[in-house]
Amino acid sequence: MELNLSEIPTRSIRCIVKLGGAAITRKNELEEIHDENLEAVACQLRQAMTEGSAPSKVIGMDWSKRPGSSEIACDVDDLGDQDSSEFSKFVVVHGAGSFGHFQASRSGVHKGGLEKPIVKAGFVATRISVTNLNLEIVRALAREGIPTIGMSPFSCGWTTSKRDVASADLSTVAKTIVSGFVPVLHGDAVLDNILGCTILSGDVIIRHLADHLKPEYVVFLTDVYGVFDRPPSENDAVLLKEIAVGEDGSWKVVNPVMDLTNKKVQTSVAAHDTTGGMETKIAEAAMIAKLGIDVYIVKAATPHSQRALNGELRESVPDDWLGTIIRFSK
């Protein structure tokens, strides 16, 4: 695995953010973006990245036509008098939501078997879908003045071995960050050394990035307020506000205090979700926390997500904050 990360000082990466597919798309509507949520998330990210130093006017960077518009929005004339905005170093990874999962599950891409025509066709169809979503997210963030660069794992040399990351050219990510851009990666269909192909989830990507980039903290933005002891749609579901991870990677709920172990936490996975849903998210978050990096799982486009993105929870957590913190505990 080629890594050339020497240009990035340890912990100079402030935050890695996961935009959950269920939060930024309408997961029950095929390939439909949740525009209101995505716009709100983009605004919150800009506020967090600029740390209060944002210019009075946002200079958009999406200079392409939008559906339903006959003109190109271009603020080139305003750039001459605009001071350069200082963005703290963030990396964004997003899930697929209603993009990609249908194509992958219908064709069995996640199970491998590229020699089968339906799997090969599904591989192509899945990548068309997820890269289309990636472009729309890059454009949404760019409209908020965030200098985003879309980066597909397949095109950047990410491969797996039985679904675990086998190789990843993170030097491309590093150079992008050092050059002042914000990389936007996504869950993708990739080649697998054993299976032939599979789906590399955004949660696995974040864990791998966190291991090598060592951010100060990681934020998972979801469509619910955090991790619950059962599917949050059920009556009496309890929000788990803090989960402690031990040196061996095992975890337990410490707030609220309850007679509960990790084996009793129930999660639900949509029938078309090929990446494991909340169960995978908790497992990957626990592995990140084991590195000494706090992880916040919080509902997107809320005041609670803004606090998490701003890093306000690192010193103390207000009683009225709704979300789940997963952190290392010896």
TrEMBL record:
Which Gene3D superfamilies does the record match to this protein? Acetylglutamate kinase-like (3.40.1160.10)
- Quote the record's binding site residues for substrate: 96, 101, 202
Q: What class of enzyme is it?
A: transferase
Molecular functions per Gene Ontology? ATP binding; isopentenyl phosphate kinase activity; kinase activity
**Limits of the Aspartate/glutamate/uridylate kinase domain:** 88-298
EC number(s) recorded for this UniProt protein? 2.7.4.26
Can you cite a GO biological process for this protein?
terpenoid biosynthetic process
Annotated site (Transition state stabilizer):
27
Q: Does the keyword ATP-binding apply?
A: yes
Q: Which Pfam families does the record associate with it?
A: AA_kinase
Q: Which reactions fall under this protein's catalytic activity?
A: isopentenyl phosphate + ATP = isopentenyl diphosphate + ADP
Source organism, top-level taxon: Eukaryota
User: InterPro entries this protein is in?
Assistant: AceGlu_kinase-like_sf, Asp/Glu/Uridylate_kinase, Fosfomycin_R_FomA-type
Nucleotide-binding keyword on record? yes
User: Which key words are in the record?
Assistant: ATP-binding, Isoprene biosynthesis, Kinase, Nucleotide-binding, Transferase
GO cellular component annotations of the record: cytosol
Give residues annotated as binding ATP: 97, 223, 277, 281
Query: Of which family is this protein a member?
Result: Belongs to the isopentenyl phosphate kinase family.
Matching PANTHER family: GLUTAMATE 5-KINASE, ISOPENTENYL PHOSPHATE KINASE
- Its protein name is Isopentenyl phosphate kinase
